[in-house]
Amino acid sequence: MFRQGLDESFCETWERFKVIQIKCPNHGFEDIAQLNIFHNGLSFDTKMFLDVAACGTIMVVDVEQATNIIDALSSTHYQAYNDVQIKQKKGMLNLNTSYMILV
């Protein structure tokens, strides 16, 4: 059973799903079944995010269009996720000078 990890981002989940597909090329699932497996394995919030992008639910658009939406969102999310990770250093609290003046 495929599930999005608790701390796993959308882009990480999509990349992991694609790796699984590559590792099991003879799985026998049709494209719509694969999309259904991916969608059902997402967290509630991620499903909502994906469904909004599809203007309803991702499960009513054709597989090619759904895959294009997922790829586009994953790419955008990946860029934003990495920008945040670069700006934040673990274990450090960054305070600007105006905050220090107010304290």
Please, could you describe this protein's structure?
This protein is mostly helical and about 100 residues long. It has one domain. The protein contains 5 helices and no strands. Helix 1 crosses helix 4. The radius of gyration is 18 Å and the shape is globular. The chain starts with 9 loop residues before the first helix and ends with a helix.
Query: Gyration radius, to the nearest Å?
Result: 18 Å
Q: Which structural class is indicated by helix and strand composition?
A: mainly alpha
| Helix count, DSSP H or I runs of 4 or more residues | 5
Amount of helix: 55-70%
Average pLDDT taken over every residue: 81
* Number of distinct beta strands: 0
How would you describe the oligomerization state of the chains in this entry?
single chain
What is the approximate shape?
globular
Please indicate the percent range of residues in DSSP E strands (runs of 2 or more): under 5%
Total discrete domains: 1
Main sheet properties: none
Write the H/E string, N to C.
HHHHH
Spans of at least 5 consecutive residues whose pLDDT stays below 50 are 99-103
Distance between the termini: 51 Å
State the main characteristics.
5 helices; globular; 103 residues; disordered C terminus; mainly alpha
Layout of strands and helices, then pairs:
Elements: H1 10-23, H2 31-40, H3 44-53, H4 63-87, H5 97-102
Helix pairs in contact: 1-4
